[in-house]
Each structure stands twice: as C-alpha cells, then as structure tokens.
Amino acid sequence: MPGLIGKKIGMTSVFSAEGKNVPCTVIEAGPCVVTQVKNLEADGYVAVQLAFDEKREKSTTKPEKGHFEKAGTTPKAKLVEFKEFEQEFKLGDVVTVDIIEENTYVDISGISKGKGFQGVVKRHGFAGVGGQTHGQHNRLRAPGSLGASSFPSRVFKGMRMAGRTGGDQVKVENLRVIKVIPESNLILIKGSVPGAKGSYLIIEK
Predict the structure, then answer these.
(1) What is the Cα–Cα distance from 23 to 21, expressed in whole angstroms?
(2) Which of the residues 51, 85, 96, 115 has an alpha carbon 20 to 30 A from that of 130?
(3) Is 111 in the same domain as 154?
C-alpha cells in the first residue's frame, strides 16, 4: 500500500466539532525522498523506496553514500519500500504528508515499547491464582503447571512463560486521521500508536 515514513512526536488531545475531548498521537510524517524505483524488468516487482530523517555523514557507509548520492539527497536514517503508489516517481522526488487526507483511515506499524523481563500476568494476561482459601500464600501471580511429569518429561515449545516483553513489530489497523498540518509535516491520529517517542513509524493508506 502507498504510505509514508514518520516519527512519533508524542500524545495530546484535541476537541472535536461535538465538543468531545479526543486523545490523539502527533506524528511527523515525511517529507520522504524517493531513493529507489523498482520495476518488473529489473527487480521482478514494482515498488518505491522512500527515505526519511537525516543521518550523520560519519555514520554512513560508502555503499549507502553512493546510494543516496545517486538519488541526489543527503544520507537518511530510515528506508522503507512501498507498493501500489498511483503516481509515477523518479529518483529524488519528495513525497509529503499531502498524500494523507483528514477523516480517512490508515494502518501504522512500529516497534512496541520494550518492557524488559516480565511475568506471565503482565506478559500473557494470566489471571493468577484467585484467593488464598486453599492453603497457598505466595503463588498469586505464578503460571501454574508447565506440563506432565512422567510423560513427556519436558516442557513443550511455545509454552507461555515469563520472559522479555515488548520490542516487537506491531501493526495497528484502521486508525482515523483527525487532522493534517502540511506546513509542519504533522498528522494527528486518534488514539495511541506503537512505539516510544522519537521512534520510526510506517504509515500506510
């Protein structure tokens, strides 16, 4: 789907026409530079590679520098491919937030916040053992049995247990665009989106 690369600025709230206070996320969306155009003949599929956000020259490898120089732009931090753009692009073209309209819906992908090592109640939503009427006193948030003893004498793969939580690629679909501010390259999305402040987001129409 066509879209843009953005950066999460933070959350705020705005008042709707009905006077309701609506929580929303502020995203800096673009401008993105076209750094590669893929076609059926050379690549086997049609796509447009967009680049977003400045990257330090000293942190850029030589192959990357050549890639960006070919597109006539400075080194960028985030590159993403998008398919099914309606308009034709060439190297160096700039895609702005103007492609997104107010009161439409978008899908947003990002890396969720890392929570560190967490137990099963927080990680998987386990209820824990209810009450203390059966003699147990210190096992309220325990996972319970992990399997049988004599057979198979092991814990099956995929068993929901405690461990590292968050830091996953997450997509939230059908989020409403409340407002677009083209002069500042900002869009306001109703509700929350994955990721911490300053993290990169992929916005698909």
Answers:
(1) 7
(2) 115
(3) no
Residue 115's pLDDT is what? 95
Average pLDDT for residues 131-141, to the nearest whole number?
73
Q: Does the pTM of the predicted model rise above 0.85?
A: no
Dist CA 131 CA 150 (whole Å): 30
86 and 39 in one domain? yes
pLDDT band at 77 (very low <50, low <70, confident <90, very high): very high
Q: Are 130 and 42 members of one domain? A: no
Co-location of 41 and 100 in the same domain: yes
Q: Determine contact, residues 191/13, Cβ cutoff 8 Å.
A: no
The total domain count for the chain is 2
Report the relative pairing of strands 169-181 and 105-111 from DSSP bridges.
antiparallel
- Measured in degrees and rounded to the nearest 5, phi and psi for residue 197 equal -60, 135
Q: Other CB atoms closer than 10 Å to residue 189's CB: what's the count?
A: 26
